[in-house]
Amino acid sequence: MNRLVVIAFLAAALLLPPHLRAAESDQEVEAHKAVLDLAGAFTNDGFKMRDGHWTGTLKTGEHALIAVNLYAGNQYWFSVGAVQPAKKVEVAVYDETGKLMTTESYNEGERAAAGFSPTTSGQYYVSVGLVEGDPSSFCLVYSYK
Amino acid sequence: MTRSARFVAAGCVLAGCLTIGGTEAPHLPAEQLAKAVRSDEISIPTPGELFAALEKPGKPNWSGQFRGPLPTTYRNRAQIALNLGGLIADGFIAVEAQDSQQVKNIGSDIIKMAKALGVSENILSRGNSINEFAENNDWDALQEELEATQNEVKTSMQTHSDQDLIILVSLGGWIRGTQVVSAAVMQNYDERSAKVLRQPALVNFMQAKINDISPGMRDNPLVKSVSDQLVGIEKLVSFPAGKAPSPDDVKKVNEAVGHVMADIQQKSDGK
Predict the structure, then answer these.
(1) Which residues on B lie below 8 Å from A123 (Cβ)?
(2) Is B3 in contact with A120 (Cβ distance < 8 A)?
(3) What is the pLDDT, as a whole number, of residue B126?
């Protein structure tokens, strides 16, 4: 039990927002670069990228859940980038009741994105998971139009 | 919440995430949703996002939402932070209105207020960029620059151990943005536009963040008043999912946020 608590605390430190932590690790910086490259493609389609991002670390089979607040009428793309040894990541969106939303999806190994157009404004949850590969840092950004 | 408590909360998040690891969960339980990560920089939308949604059914009269210049000589740091957030929202409005002079005026006021809070000198270069993009009518770049300016102000606050002010900047922006959006919807009611006002979880999150700041700042009369009024505002923006607020609902939201905004702008400092 104690071991679990220690592990949870250590991992929690990695899930804290960047400004509450020490400088981002090299792996997180690389993950950020990877996701900017992916999200940049959506800007060609008129999407504006949020300046904020979220970094964390995932083990295989784990999911991180991040709360976002979205507006009905907007279209969103949630993009995630990870770096080797991660091999495959996935992104999903849930509504405020926890129901899985239907999204457009893009998967390219350690990068993935989910496109979503809410019809109701409010809180949603972005789930980021590491499907294949070994533990790695990931970075989440989102774009809207 | 203390920093160690944040660690505990984030630890719970991880523990919650582990419970769904490995298998697809089509419906997440409420206790797991409660443990999701929430952060200022990704869980609070920018005014730009709000305004983008508002103008989907039709472009509102953005320039009709301009307000007169704010005093940039507030002495109360909490009041400056709240007004700084509101000013940044004004910058987004001026960009939507594509009024380069208004953008430059607001950019100048943003820099003055940021300097009054003692944020990094780097912010000065943001002011120059805002002017340059405004001269060139580069509206997309201006939106990015305004968001980057807001983030730089927050990062500087973090660096200078002014964390308490960060949520006040976000809150000021949300209040001003909601005031403008509710006013625009009142002027030309449309159910699709009105739907953007539904944000109970966002108000609840900001309220929780204010409860998390240091007792000294929390007891500031203006912060206390704003925080108290947020309780009522949260109820007003808690429309049922899928149902658009009525024109009367919108009016109530506008009056409530207008009242908070008047308190924030009032020149007489709390202390």
Answers:
(1) 200-202
(2) no
(3) 84
Q: What is the pLDDT of residues A55-97, one digit of tens each?
A: 999 889 889 999 999 999 999 999 999 988 999 999 999 999 9
In chain A, the number of structural domains is: 1
ipTM of the complex: 0.85
Q: What local confidence, expressed as pLDDT, does residue A23 receive?
A: 58
pLDDT band at B171 (very low <50, low <70, confident <90, very high): very high
Subunit contact B26:A20, Cβ cutoff 8 A: no
Higher-pLDDT residue of B249 and A26 is: B249
B15–A contact, CB cutoff 8 A: yes
B33/A96 touch (CB, cutoff 8 Å), yes or no = yes
Assess B52–A contact: CB distance below 8 Å, yes or no.
Answer: yes
Q: How far is CA B73 from CA A39, B63, B83, B150, B207, in A?
A: 40, 25, 11, 19, 27
Domain assignments of chain B as residue spans, ordered by start? 1-37, 38-265
d(CA B242, CA A119): 7
Instruction: State which residue of chain A sits closest to B45, comparing Cα positions.
Output: A69
What is the CATH number for A127? 2.60.120.380
Alpha-carbon distance of A106 to A91, in angstroms, equals 9
- B195/A contact by beta carbon, under 8 A: yes
Those of residues 94-153 in B touching chain A at CB distance below 8 A are 140, 143-144, 147-148, 151
Confidence of residue B268 (pLDDT cuts 50, 70, 90): low
Inter-CA distances, B246 with A73, A103, A127, B195, B205, Å: 18, 30, 33, 10, 25
What is the per-residue pLDDT for B237? 96
Looking at residue A119, what DSSP letter applies?
Answer: S
Residue A45 lies in domain? 2-144
**A144: nearest CB among B30, B52, B158:** B52
- Look at residue B123 in the predicted model and tell me its pLDDT: 78
Query: Which of B63, B80, B62 is CA-nearest to residue B71?
Result: B80
Give the H or E element holding residue A4: helix A2-15
